[in-house]
């Protein structure tokens, strides 16, 4: 078999080209730190790397979502903490206003203070997240939720809760409806409301009451009507009460100040001396806004005790007692919302920790798939460079060989 000079030349050139290609590839791996330069280097690993990269990008986006979510929830919780402190100040001021030695002027001074608190409260309810989105407007993040319309605070948002994707399978509410936070607070004891009629002239003071048997509640409106019969021959007057709409009917029951009045699963008491014809109503609890509760207290404190409805000073005591109970309900509702925010913040923190761990796993997997082993790469680079240099010298020597040199 004869091998021509051109065949030897071509074979050596091809071998040198392959060695140069391998050396260039190794140089690129060392320079970039990446084992895979093109998909053809390792098709399986390249495909897996694309999938892991996509998952890592999604995880990074979820992390950004959680950061924004935590910011919004923290702002909402901070605002409601301020609302809590404000309402506690209002509660203390109202309790203080019940001091029997206070004059009408003293109570008007407290009312002025509460007026400032009310405006401050409206400001908290209209808080934003710092970029113009209202915290308590539901889905209507660009709409100011609360406005004063002719002395009445109205809600202009909706009942929605904005949801943020916190990870692949979990959405967390980043907001609460202002209606649930500030407007929908049950008055009275949460089941029913006791209240004296504005025309009462006696000194009866009604308690908030409680539910004694929830299965007997009817949802009816009741009127507790007092009758005072003058005593005969110097005997004391006899006071009785009847309850309209009670099941069974309550008619002419003897009244004892402070003694429990029970009917239809409800229990409360009236202390003092009701006058003949005095009426106390019992109605199902309804939603009452925080703003109305504070506004009613301001109105009660601004009214001179002598002219207050349902019995002058007695009427003032009834109004303050009712307002204090409603403030308690408001505070409980705010604390419940804050508890919900706290639970969501805890969940966000847990998801963030899990997301950070997952991100590290993705990066470790990508490193295993894509990154070059520096020790092996430098060893290969040295070996390939040495081999190429030897091949070049060998080729130079072989290429100069010719039969004519020996003739």
Question: Care to describe what's here?
Answer:
There is one protein chain. A hairpin with a 5-residue loop joins strand 10 and strand 11 (250-254). This protein folds into three domains: 5-33 and 372-406; 54-186 and 325-358, f41 fragment of flagellin, N-terminal domain; 192-285, no CATH class. With 407 residues, the chain is of the alpha+beta class. The chain contains seven helices and 15 strands.
Number of domain units: 3
Catalogue the unreliable spans: none
User: N-to-C SSE series?
Assistant: HHHEEEEHEEEEEEEEEEEHHH
Instruction: Provide the CATH top-level class of the largest domain.
Output: Mainly Alpha
Describe the strand arrangement of the main beta sheet, using strand numbers.
6-14-9-10-11
Note the total helix count: 7
What class, by secondary structure content? alpha+beta
Outline the biggest β-sheet. Answer: 5 strands, antiparallel
pLDDT averaged over residues: 86
The radius of gyration computed from the alpha-carbon positions, rounded to a whole number of angstroms, is 41 Å
Ends apart, CA distance between termini = 21 Å
Q: What is the total tally of β strands?
A: 15
Helical proportion, percent range? 40-55%
What overall form do the CA principal axes indicate? Answer: rod-shaped
CATH homologous superfamily designation of the largest domain: f41 fragment of flagellin, N-terminal domain
Under CATH, the topology of the largest domain can be stated as: f41 fragment of flagellin, N-terminal domain
CATH architecture of the largest domain: Up-down Bundle
Strand content: 15-25%
């Amino acid at each position: 078999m004869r091998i021509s000079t051109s065949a030897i030349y071509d074979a050596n050139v091809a071998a040198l080209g392959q060695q140069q290609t391998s050396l260039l590839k190794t140089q690129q791996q060392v320079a970039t730190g990446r084992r895979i330069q093109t998909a053809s280097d390792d098709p399986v690993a390249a495909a897996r790397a694309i999938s892991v990269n996509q998952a890592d990008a999604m995880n990074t986006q979820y992390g950004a979502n959680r950061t924004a979510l935590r910011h919004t929830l923290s702002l909402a919780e901070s605002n409601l903490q301020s609302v809590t402190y404000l309402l506690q100040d209002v509660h203390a001021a109202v309790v203080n206003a019940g001091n029997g030695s206070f004059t009408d002027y003293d109570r008007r001074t407290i009312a002025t203070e509460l007026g400032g608190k009310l405006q401050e409260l409206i400001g908290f309810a209209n808080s934003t997240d710092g970029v113009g989105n209202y915290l308590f407007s539901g889905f209507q993040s660009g709409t100011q939720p609360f406005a004063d319309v002719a002395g009445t605070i109205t809600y202009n948002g909706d009942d929605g809760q904005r949801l943020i994707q916190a990870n692949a399978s979990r959405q967390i509410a980043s907001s609460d409806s202002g209606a649930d936070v500030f407007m929908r607070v049950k008055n009275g004891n949460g089941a029913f409301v006791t209240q004296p009629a504005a025309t009462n002239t006696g000194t009866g003071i009604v308690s908030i009451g409680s539910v004694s048997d929830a299965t007997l509640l009817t949802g009816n409106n009741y009127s507790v009507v007092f009758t005072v019969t003058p005593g005969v021959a110097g005997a004391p007057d006899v006071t009785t009460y009847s309850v309209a709409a009670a099941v069974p009917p309550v008619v002419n029951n003897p009244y004892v100040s402070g003694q429990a009045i029970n009917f239809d699963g409800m229990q409360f008491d009236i202390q003092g001396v009701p006058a003949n014809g005095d009426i106390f109503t019992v109605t199902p609890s309804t939603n009452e806004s925080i703003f109305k509760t504070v506004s009613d207290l301001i109105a009660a404190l601004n009214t001179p005790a002598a002219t207050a409805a349902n019995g002058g000073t007695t009427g003032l005591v009834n109004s303050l007692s009712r307002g204090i109970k409603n403030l308690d309900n408001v505070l409980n509702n705010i604390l419940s919302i804050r508890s919900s925010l706290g639970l969501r913040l805890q969940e966000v923190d847990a998801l963030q920790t899990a997301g950070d761990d997952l991100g590290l796993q993705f990066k470790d997997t990508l490193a295993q798939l894509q990154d070059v082993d520096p020790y092996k790469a430098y060893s290969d680079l040295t070996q390939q460079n040495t081999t190429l240099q030897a091949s070049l010298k060998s080729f130079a020597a072989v290429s100069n060989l010719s039969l004519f040199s020996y003739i």
